[in-house]
Amino acid sequence: MRDEAWGEYLRQSPEGTELLAWWQQVRDGMSRTDRDAYGERLASLLADASARDCAAAGFGCTRRIDRVCREPSVCRLDPVMPTPAEEAPRGEREGPVQGACGGFHSFRGDFTVHVWFSGGRDLHRAVFWHDMEASTVRLWVDGIPVGTAADLNPYGHWLDGRLLVVQAEGPDDHPLQSYGPGLPVTGIVSVLIHDTAYGSTQTLIPGPHETWTEPHVVRAGETLRVYATPEARIADVPDRILSLRSAPE
Question: What DSSP designation does 152 have?
Fold first, then answer.
């Protein structure tokens, strides 16, 4: 049983215990408050939670998003801090591994929650709350709301453990814009980039000749290169090259 397997760990983690209790009583919690308030409280708890806390609370992980942790004997152990060269690409750490996976997911009825920790050191975490009833996505990074004015994809990824990259709605007046069922955002998309070094966020909006259907952002030294599609990335034909501010010491 999950609670028995994680019991010893939870007795030493007040953050994990509180997260577990709040998540287990989600329906009662929503009956006492509105959906947005419940999501904000959950995001606040997740801002202080570790990857092991998420596993102990029963969230699905990068191995299987629809199942609780299957290897608590490994995942509940203290994490082994990687060297910079060993950092997981894009922050996607998959278990079983000491300290648990780098991403977690769960759902209740008509909303989902996704949590992505940055790199192998979990210095930052992004929390996506997707309310399918209201057709809205909210995002918090380290407990701070991000992208409140943008319609976001309910997923994103970390770049170098510092930058969070998320697709967002593209401009309505783009000549190749498209809409349709099954699209998390529009066919031509914008790109939201949050820089944890400065706590700053910018949304890159494609121009009429920039057909960003599946944009990729790549860091090259002190620049960011924005490619319209995976094919453009392979061919190394970026639409934009942006300067990246050096992280403050």
Answer: B
